Amino acid sequence: MYMKEKIGRLMAMVCLCALFCTGCGETKKPESVTGQTIYISKEGEITLWLVTDFDGADYNISELTSMAVKEVSQFNADRAPEAFVTVEKVEALPDDSGRAAVTYQFGNWQSCTDFIGNELFYGTNQMFYGMVSEALSMGYGSEAILKNVKDNTLYTEEQLKQVSGQYLIVTDVKADIYCPGRVAYISDGASLNEDGSVNTFEVEGLAYILLK
After folding, report:
1. Rounded to whole angstroms, what are the CA distances from 128 to 11, 22, 209?
2. How many other C-beta atoms can be found within 10 angstroms of the C-beta atom of residue 40?
3. 78-83 contacts at long range (C-beta below 8 A, 24 or more positions apart)
């Protein structure tokens, strides 16, 4: 009986620790994706899975890889030494959807914004990750209204100014976004996925994600 009680207490402690760690840490980098996805590390490095239609009729994976590598090489050459962009891999999605994912790795959000702001994303897309104070100094946050992920209470631009040291993600890329910390507030239209990532596919304009 004593041994069973001891094991039971131990299992309860393990479960509580797992729950605590999940709530406070960054979301885990996904091993596979089913749609456009962004992962941001605590160091500010960004991984982007660009999902595109691909049926193999016009070109194969090898040709798609060659095209992606060539574009990245040209981008880096034009912006050296500041730029740091690599193609991690290119693969067909395993869901028979006729789509492929090109996985890009960026050293920082600036390189990501420069890259996705070119013709690849129709020249309009943005990606920011940094402190609220930096975002506000760059013009982000104007008339921003966020909602609490727990109770949907609103959070205005004026309240945002009071947490200048917290981290903020701003983007207009439609994706599942894996964040480097626990999510506190998100833009209207955004939603939390079961794995803790943020879905921005239904957000109009810029999506804001405020971290605790």
Report:
1. 41, 24, 10
2. 28
3. 79/111, 79/114, 82/110, 82/111, 83/107, 83/111, 83/114, 83/115
Measure the CA angle with vertex 56, ends 202 and 118; round to 5°. 50
114 Cα distance to chain centroid: 16
Residue with tokens 């981008």, as numbered in its chain: 75
pTM for this model (two decimals)? 0.83
The pair of structure tokens assigned to 35 is 């749609």
Q: Mean pLDDT in the chain?
A: 85
Whole-number Å distance between alpha carbons of 106 and 87: 9
Assigned token pair, 5: 């009680």
Q: Which H or E element spans position 52?
A: strand 46-53
CA–CA separation, 154 and 133 (whole Å): 20
* CA pair distance 110, 134, nearest whole angstrom: 13
Short-list 65, 29, 64, 27, CA closest to 47 = 29
Q: Tens of pLDDT along 73-108?
A: 999 998 877 778 999 999 999 887 788 999 999 999
pLDDT tens sequence across 26-66? 688 998 899 999 999 999 999 999 998 876 656 688 988 99
Taking alpha carbons only, the member of 72, 152, 148, 157 closest to residue 106 is 72
